Amino acid sequence: MTEPLRGPDPNTGPPDPFVAGMPPVGWQYEALPVLRALAADEPSAQKLEVAGSARDERTLDVWSDLDVLVTATSDPQPIADRLALAVTAELGPLYASSRSVGDQEAGVRLVLADLRRIDLTVRATRATANPPALPDTGGPLARIAAEYRFDAVLAAFKTARQDLLIGAHLVLQLPRHLLVATMILRDRETGTRHHRHGSPEWNTWLERLAAVAPPDSATTITASIRHHTHVLQELLAVHAPELAADDEPLHRLLTAVDRNTRTHTAHRSDT
Questions:
Q1: 92 φψ region: left (φ > 0), alpha (ψ -120 to 50), beta (else)
Q2: What pLDDT score does 12 carry?
């Protein structure tokens, strides 16, 4: 396995070494040997490379993730899935995740409960003739809930970096996820996908989604995430309690982002 991570520059050091509720700068240096060992256990894995900001310690801050690319000689999807399970077993419980598959690679993006983010990409040395579709583990409602939580986390991280354009774009996806979840639940409870008319019972969820300001600033973005997450919790508690999850990691992240926004605003006011 290749591509070692260097430590912080002893002369300059990393920026923002600590933000309450967030993993410290440099956690990638400790996680990388674990990932290398896990990849080495895969018989068809040829090498592991570090990608993204973690290749240069000068670009790391508390909001940085760890991107790794594993090159393998066999189907990348099962390797990515096994590595994802192994990472959570070794480094801590999972809060949110996202999966993807293509002609020659498969990816799993992990958000651990302590808010370390690890993006695993496994790339085959040659494309498979018919790349497999991702299995719908847990059913469509579980998939929607997982997509919601991952998009909420990513929106918060983008907002922390003051990338409000992408942060707002991701936040606007959240009510869409909730509307799709509501439609799935309505179909499940009524026993049909065909509805000639709506009903106040289900339309009321739309009113709840609208009870928040549009995401036009860092503050309104995090407020929107909180509001929609509360709606998700209510929806699942009433109709699918088996899919309810502890969203404490997300709320801890939002608190850290709000603190960062206040610091950023104060700094701009002083300059």
A1: left
A2: 36
